[in-house]
Amino acid sequence: MSLLYATAAEDSSRRAVVCGCVAHRHGNASGRPMRARAYPTDMTDAQWEAVAPAIPLPAWVSGRGGQPEGYCHRVMLDAVFYVLDNGIKWRAMPVDFPEWTAVYRFFRRWRDLGMIKTLHDRLRRECREREGREREPTAAVIDSQSLRAAETVGAEQRGYDAGKRTNGTKRHIAVDVCGLLLAVVVTGAGVQDRDGARPLLEQLRAACLRVALVWADSAYGGVLVTWALTQLRLTLEIVKRSDDMTGFVVLPRRWVVERTLAWITRRRRCVRDYERRHESHEAMAYWAMTLVMTRRLAR
């Protein structure tokens, strides 16, 4: 069996969405009624055609354990996108989606098994090819963003960023030169950028073996430059703001990662940190960029 997802042709004569996902063809979703596209975050047919071949196969399809899924994958992706974009609580899931507990189990399973990262990385390679680039990047840009944390974030998960006067968490990301996400690490807001960059760069090295050059701002200077070169064979180049600059100035390379942070914070669930675990917020960042790429591939 192919390692990639396969879809069947959709019946255009029906007003409701019809899909040939694995859960319909081999799981227990065939007896459930389909839902029509109702919200701006629901994938169009063009988006689904772009996403479906990249969805990783669940283990139960190849007989490696697990119960066959009972809900359409297209519907479940739409449900997670709805939570992500509207910033609602899981319990506030609209009634035309599956029960919130089923959607949350789907989100949690994809987070813990790394399936959302697998889907995200496959779409990123497709986007890079569309832009005439090689599938794997050779350079990256890193930066961080402090976020206020909601009351659902425990004291052990949060910190205080004195520079930004923010009590919450900090999102550290690495992107390619197109602004597509390569790695993300969430820490307490009190963690310094250069300290949070170490697990970020380790994750980047493990995920993207061809990356050799990383651009960053002056907060990442000092011993981190030597550590990255000796431990990870990454050249960390600091892009500094000159002393004679006044007002807003677009700095080379650094604007790319700042734009990606803006893309992520367009999704209301990512404007603040509502997650009890850092891994959940990291997964939300991958879901946010997955939504960006599905729309880009559907053009």
Structural features, described:
- By secondary structure, this protein is of the alpha/beta class.
- The protein has 2 domains: 22-113, no CATH class; 136-297, Ribonuclease H-like superfamily/Ribonuclease H (Nucleotidyltransferase, domain 5), CATH 3.30.420.10.
- The chain is built from 9 helices and 6 strands.
- Strands 1, 2, 3, 4, 5 and 6 form a 6-stranded mixed beta sheet that branches.
- A hairpin with a 5-residue loop joins strand 3 and strand 4.
- It is globular, with a radius of gyration of 20 Å.
- The chain starts with 21 loop residues before the first helix and ends with a helix.
- Residues 6-17 have low confidence and may be disordered.
